[in-house]
Amino acid sequence: MKLSQLRTLTHSKYTDPLSANRPRVNQALRAEGYDPSAVYQEMEMDSPWVDTHDDASDVKDRVQLHSHTFYELLFCRGGSLQYLLGTQRYRLQRGDIVYIPPGTSHRPLLLDKLVEPYTRYVLWASPAFAEMLHGAFPQEELLPAEAFLLRTAATPWQEELGGLFRTGVQENYTRAPGWEAAVLGNTIRLLVQMARARTGSNIPDPQAEQQDLLDQLLLYIEYHLSEKINLADTARRFLVSESTVNQLFRRRMKVSFYRFVTQRRLIAAKVRLQEGDSAEQAAARTGFGDYSTFYRAFRREYGISPAEYRRLQLSAGAPALQKRENGVD
Fold first, then answer.
1. What is the distance, to the nearest Å, from the Cα of residue 258 to the centroid of all Cα atoms in its chain?
2. Are 122 and 70 in contact (CB under 8 A)?
3. Residue 284 dihedral angles phi and psi, to the nearest 5°
4. pTM of the predicted structure, to 2 decimals
5. How far is residue 192 from each of residues 131, 142, 162, 268, measured CA to CA in Å?
6. Which of 93, 248, 306, 309 sits at a 20 to 30 Å CA gap from 189?
């Protein structure tokens, strides 16, 4: 679902329905058969290049583990919370920039403990935009392949980078003549300044949260996705009870252990489909015991079949998939 479709669905007077009047958004989504907690993994870009908007979440929101087919950059404006980026947990704070490449699993954590809403500027960049940048500036790595968190608080970069995020959002909202060109130019400037900030000496290195049992379990799941994973064996491996594992996931991740494993496998399967695997290959390589189980889980989570998703990615111009279809490795 695109933001423009969500505006139509909710009859929203706001340019960005995600950051305003969330109860009405959730009600409209449920009426159409969508799960509000899964809306982020179903979002699509409106622009073929760059989309910008702002967003807000509060203690009533439940954001599931998800990934995107595009690059996502988040500038945290408020709300102290933990953020799961791949297998790393970070304590997010004002001025942090979360950089999320396509296919990277992520989600905010502990929204039920917020003392203020989690607000952020959001920038989405398409793989086509990344290819265009690489073609124009092959010596620069402006959209890296690896996820990271950039901490700008108490540095000169916080105001400048935050201002560039804000400028892109304002251009998108006001839509003055030439706004799309302005968003593209502003995005390139933002990416250049981010690259400079990352190589500077005055940027603190954000440390992941100290590992606990949850982190160990997340890493175990990550490294054994293609294998059989069950609750009993996992609990024995970590010398705890099955109840301890399941309650930990329900308390911290708001889903059961098995639901989390399925969500993570489905994200990995989406990446496989985007890279050219058939639906059957994707199922086999991401730990699903049989194709029918994979098919049902995929359709329940994303609302379409794996084959339909693959066709959509091909028609949308997914670079890796197009190369595979054309016989290019």
1. 21
2. no
3. -65, -35
4. 0.86
5. 16, 6, 14, 30
6. 93
CA atoms within 13 A on the CB side of 114: 22
Contact 74, 122 (CB under 8 A): yes
**Contact residues for 250 (Cβ-Cβ < 8 A; gap 6+):** 256
**160-167 long-range contacts, CB within 8 A, separation 24+:** 160/193, 161/75, 161/97, 161/190, 161/193, 161/194, 161/197, 162/75, 162/77, 162/95, 162/121, 164/189, 164/190, 164/193, 165/52, 165/73, 165/75, 165/121, 165/123, 165/190, 166/121
The span from the CA of 40 to the CA of 61, in Å, is 12
Buried b (16+ CB within 10 A) or exposed e, 140-161: eebbeeebbbbbbeebebbeeb
54: left (phi over 0), alpha (psi -120 to 50) or beta: beta
Beta bridge partners of 106: 66, 85
Q: Are 79 and 119 in contact (CB under 8 A)?
A: yes
The helix or strand, by DSSP H or E, that contains position 50, with its residue range, turns out to be: strand 50-57
- The region, left, alpha or beta by phi > 0 then psi within -120 to 50, assigned to residue 95 is left
DSSP, residue by residue, 69-124: SSEEEEEEEE--EEEEETTEEEEE-TTEEEEE-TT--EEEE-GGG-SS-EEEEEEE
pLDDT in tens, 29-59: 677 666 665 656 667 888 999 999 998 887 6
**Predicted confidence (pLDDT) per residue in 196-208, tens digit:** 999 876 777 788 8
Give the gyration radius of the chain's Cα atoms: 20
Distance separating alpha carbons of residues 110 and 114, to the nearest angstrom:
7
